[in-house]
Write the structure tokens for this entry.
Amino acid sequence: MDKEINPGETIIHNKNVETALNDDQVSMSTMQFSRRSLSTQVTITQRAYLEVFGLKNYPVGVELGEEEMRIGRGDDCGLKLPLHGVSRQHARVYFRNEEYYIEDLESTNGTYVNSIRVSRCVLRNNDQIEIGQAKIFFIEERMRRKSI
Amino acid sequence: MTTGKNSPAQVTFWGTRGSIPTPGRTTEKYGGNTPCVSIVYDNNYIIIDAGSGIRNCGLELVGSGLGTSENPIDLHLFLSHTHWDHIQGLPFFVPAYVPGNSFVIYGSPNKERFLESILSDQMDTQYFPVEMTSLAANISIREMSDEALRFGDLAIDWQEQVYHPGGSVRYRITVNGRRIVYASDVELDQIFFPDEKTEETERLAAEYLAFVDKADLLIADGQYTEEEYKTKKGWGHTSIPVLLEIAYRAKVKQLAFFHHDPQHTDKLLNELWTKYSPKYHTADPPMHIFWAREGLTMPI
Ligand SMILES: [Zn+2]
Ligand SMILES: [Zn+2]
């Protein structure tokens, strides 16, 4: 979690929820191929990122994993924001029940989601988080795709 | 989140949808559960309305180790009225089944039938497999008097709202000099812009303005767009432009649109926010407006 962010860099965490659909030996009579052969090639991928704007030489993207990500000025933050108005440990993003949440860690200047000050909020695609001078977009992708 | 003395009260939206739950892809941002809001301050647990959202409220409480038989708590549920979308979650509220919890349900005294019979009828075996008498918590149902209720530093007062079929109640929570008002299920258009102004509408308008005056957070019915309202007059819900105008007149600081129409998708609610919020955000004084969404907790 202890990573310094370089401009333009995307840090990939180990989150890549893959659910292989499985179905034993079922073939559908109306189809040219078995359901199994179809479904074993499909994976559902869920990925989420924080994209930071408002900093010199940024944006920067951080991929979220299942572990908690701390946001703040502190060296131990997964997303380090060396900015005015950002507390040492400002907020955290965590994953629970297949959802991402942001929680303010009693920061001095508050955590905002879509311009509203929050203590905690479930995150949805394209939510705009404001922490100090930084604007951070939460981007979530859910894909069903054929694996090769 | 701390909820101790001198920290802010924490207001959480568990259900924001009006009329009927609307699960699905087009409502996942603002949520599909029917009305439920909790206010927590210094170990006082206040819940307003028991729509389907109360289910998640109960699960979170118990999940955090509160309201369990090892760690029982006192819960206070205030009902705005007993339309189905405001009580349907009650049989799914887990802490009500836990012995040792105290659970007080408050509602309007001005009903034709006793609140208790309305609630227990919902759990008649013809409608639901578990009867209300099997709720193991210490449950009491109270019809409120005119006096404000106090829980530690937190005070609650209420007023009847007439422009909704069967009526409804609005609540005001005062804590640490801050005010949170919950005023759902009311047609303000009929009070503030009636076809004909009467002494009665004037009185109701003045009462409303005084009640929500300078609220730090107003959670209010703004179900219909201006267009939709034309065909929904008399249905008991407020149109967006009227709510905006009245809330701004009352110097409300943050306005949460609530009781979203079941037909309103995330896309539409996003568009409404984009359309209306900049004007009020940059006004002097500003009023911050947003469409309430499930899973949001605000410090007030
Ligand atoms: Zn309703
Ligand atoms: Zn109603």
